[in-house]
Amino acid sequence: MRHTIQVLALLVTILLFGCSKEDMDSINSDPIEFIYDFNSGQMGWTADYTDYFINMEDDIDFKSELISLPEPLDTSEAAIMIGGTNVSDDLFMFLKKNLTGLESNTIYNFEFEVTIATDVPDGTVGIGGSPGESVFIKGGAVNIEPMKIQMDDEYLVNIDKGNQSTDGPDIATLGDFSNDTNEEIFVLKTVGNEEPFRAMTDENGTIWIIIGSESGFEGRTQLIFDSLKIVARK
Q1: 197: closest CA among 91, 114, 94?
Q2: Which CA distances in Å does 187 have to 69, 106, 184?
Q3: What CA–CA distances, in Å, run from 77 to 37, 39, 53, 161, 228?
Q4: pTM metric for this prediction
Q5: What CATH number should be reported for the domain whose range is 31-233?
Q6: Nearest-5° angle of CA 83, CA 215, CA 49?
Q7: Under 8 Å CB-to-CB from 49, ≥6 apart: which residues?
Q8: How far apart are CA 179 and CA 85, in angstroms?
Q9: What are the φ/ψ torsions at residue 25 (nearest 5 degrees)?
Q10: CA–CA separation, 142 and 156 (whole Å)
Q11: With contact defined as beta carbons under 8 Å apart, do 20 and 218 qualify?
């Protein structure tokens, strides 16, 4: 019996020493999930838009509201719609929310699952780019509030989101707006990050999540967010 216990102890020791620190952190870390389906409202998410010149507001005609999913989807389900016309050739539209309840000054790995409703078929051609494959869905986490700021005659955002399909330190590209079919019909599409997105919380254990789109398509885009899921793990 003692021999069996010693052998088991040796195997456990070998397994533990064979694990990297990252592996151990993963073993010992329980993920924290934040899930939003918007059936009870916007749940603290607010919308904004940037990357345009002063006096373009009327032409962009930015909209944000809680709506029902369009047919043939389940119209009893709610969603957040944000929409705008990309007259600047680089419009960035986004939702943001401050997450709480995490450990202070701690690096977390964030995973995003963003489910959108889109009726834009694959391979569609548009001015400046495709209304599907040239509209990039992006997501990130930062420990300051993402805000619109004025720089000379242009409105930008106060974080580094990269440009178009290129990642930035504060945001990663999750996918595109095409519906992965050959039909102009609304479907639900889920996009997310392949690699965990690392970001540090502030001294209060909070972090800002930003989800949005950056467009090369010089036309109107209406993003319909059916649900958002954010998983944080140390």
Answers
A1: 114
A2: 10, 37, 9
A3: 8, 6, 36, 31, 14
A4: 0.85
A5: 2.60.120.260
A6: 50
A7: 60, 62, 82, 84, 91, 92, 93, 94, 148
A8: 20
A9: -60, -40
A10: 16
A11: no
Residue 180 vs residues 31, 186, 187, 209: alpha-carbon distances, Å: 30, 11, 9, 26
Residue 72 preceded by cis peptide, ω within 30: yes
User: Tokens in use for 58?
Assistant: 């009327």
- Kindly state the percentage of the chain with pLDDT values over 90: 78
Q: Give burial (CB, 10 Å; 0-12/13-18/19+) of 75.
A: exposed
Q: Which of 32, 64, 66 is nearest to 47 (CA)?
A: 64
Lookup result for tokens 């800002």: 208
Backbone angles phi, psi at 31, to 5 degrees: -70, 150
At residue 14, the pLDDT reads: 35
C-alpha span between 181 and 118 (Å, rounded): 10
| pLDDT > 70: percent of the chain | 88
- Asked if residue 227 lies in contact with residue 37, where contact means CB atoms within 8 angstroms, the answer is yes
What pLDDT, on the 0 to 100 scale, is given for residue 132? Answer: 87
